[in-house]
Design a protein that fits this description.
Layout lengths: L11 H9 L11 H20 L5 H15 L18 H19 L5 H5 L5 H16 L1 H20 L4 E6 L2 E7 H22 L5 E2 L16 H13 L4 E2 L3 H6 L2 H27 L29 H25 L9 H25 L11 H4 L5 H10 L1 H8 L11
GO molecular function: aspartate ammonia-lyase activity
Keywords: Lyase
Organism: Tamaricihabitans halophyticus
């Protein structure tokens, strides 16, 4: 075990975690919203414990003061453990407990113990999922806002090109005419629907399990603690939180997180489909569809001068693959809960954090660096309109489908409709 530095606030349990879990990916401190929300759980618990007679005023005030320092970013380097670790989040909980206890002891001039005082009336079993729920409720707002920005950008494009005709296609074959405005309004509607679905998927997280302590029994928590703690959390976070209707269920079953992951995956898949469509319609400029153009962002080749690639649509598509993989990680972790507790929460939180960050990056880049500069001025848009089958559809309504097909197919019996 390493010798503590002079300014080190964390203690033995954090040191053990550092030794047991090699760093792969994020540290606890690198997910600042989670540290902040975990500290808010501790502040709410301290105030509830003071009201219930578990903590004296001096220790409660010191824990709150220490927590406010952490929230202000004064001790960011004191949370070095890997975000993903074994033990159902116990190392994360103890890292927070130890930092707050050490700093509170210094502020109060009396001993503040990480378990007896900072963790009073709590277990990792209820404090970790509460902090996780608060973090997800906070972080999900970013991709929702980015998706809505993308939807609004498509709506502006729909207005700009409301009267611009282009060739519609089915099975990648010529079909009938529609306007660019029609296409963009459909894209806007799809993105907006997915934004709403992602926002709604997190609603269940407003019911938090504080007071459940070990496996949901509430053992070790005084009468009225859960209600007081959640009331304090409402005031500290601004979220409309309630106590979990069934505390045992809230610890054993994490399916709401699978729903959030799935909603993120759906949004990514929809965005990727639209990005792929724009990539295809901009293909060329001479040998492809050439219906529209997208902004040229960088050189597309190290050997072919003048070549430009659809880098933003391809970026969106690649991030969608990673998002779908992270959603599957959430599914696996949710299914891995055993008996009274699901201890796979750290990897669920890590995966959802990646989903939200990738969705935000993809939607913002797509909106600002591709769709905003898109134009239906491709080299072949007007030429491609010559392949539209509108007149044949109208003629078939009068003369019959088989008769018109026979007259216009390139070979006897061939149907060019694609539909």
């Amino acid at each position: 075990m390493s010798v503590p530095r002079d300014n080190q606030l964390y203690g033995t349990q954090t040191e053990l975690g550092l030794g047991n879990f090699p760093l792969r990916g994020r540290t606890l401190g690198e997910l600042a919203p989670f540290v902040r929300n975990y500290v808010l759980v501790k502040l709410a618990a301290a105030r509830a414990n003071r009201a219930c007679g578990v903590l004296d005023e001096a220790r409660c005030a010191a824990i709150v003061a220490a927590g406010e320092e952490v929230i202000a970013g004064n001790h960011d380097d004191q949370f070095p453990i890997p975000l993903v670790h074994g033990g159902g989040g116990t190392t994360a909980n103890m890292n927070v407990n130890e930092v707050l206890a050490a700093r509170a002891s210094a502020l109060a001039g009396v001993a503040v113990h990480p378990n007896d005082h900072v963790n009073a009336a709590q277990s990792t079993n209820d404090s970790y999922p509460t902090a996780m729920a608060l973090t997800v409720l906070e972080l999900v707002q970013q991709p929702v806002a980015a998706l809505r920005e993308l939807s609004a950008t498509f709506e502006r494009k729909a207005a700009e090109f409301a009267g611009t005709p282009h060739l519609g296609r089915t099975c990648l074959q010529d079909a009938v005419t529609l306007t660019a405005g029609d296409t963009h309004l459909a894209q806007a509607a799809a993105i907006d629907r997915n934004a709403a679905g992602l926002a709604a998927s997190a609603d269940q997280l407003h019911a938090v399990p504080m007071g459940a302590t070990a496996v949901g029994t509430g053992v070790g928590a005084p009468q009225g603690f859960a209600q007081r703690c959640v009331q304090e959390l409402r005031e500290l976070t601004g979220f409309s939180l309630t106590t979990a209707e069934n505390r045992y269920d809230s610890l054993a079953h994490l399916d709401p997180y699978a729903e959030i992951g799935a909603a993120g995956s759906r949004a990514a898949s929809t965005m990727a489909k639209i990005a792929a469509d724009i990539r295809l319609l901009s293909a060329g400029p001479h040998g492809g569809f050439g219906d529209l153009t997208i902004p040229a962002r960088q050189a597309g080749s190290s050997i072919m001068p003048g070549k430009v690639n659809p880098v933003i649509p391809e970026y969106v598509m690649q991030l969608s693959y990673r998002i779908r993989g992270q959603s599957y990680t959430v599914d696996c972790a949710v299914a891995a809960g055993e008996l009274e507790l699901n201890v796979m929460e750290p990897v669920i939180l890590d995966a959802l954090t990646t989903i939200f960050a990738d969705l935000t990056a993809a939607a913002e880049a797509f909106a600002r660096r591709c769709v905003a500069g898109l134009a239906w001025d491709g080299a072949h848009r007007e030429r491609n309109l010559a392949g539209a089958l509108d007149n044949l559809v109208e003629l078939a309504a009068v003369e019959g489908h088989q008769q018109v097909t026979a007259k216009n197919a390139s070979e006897p019996g061939e149907d060019r409709s694609g539909g």
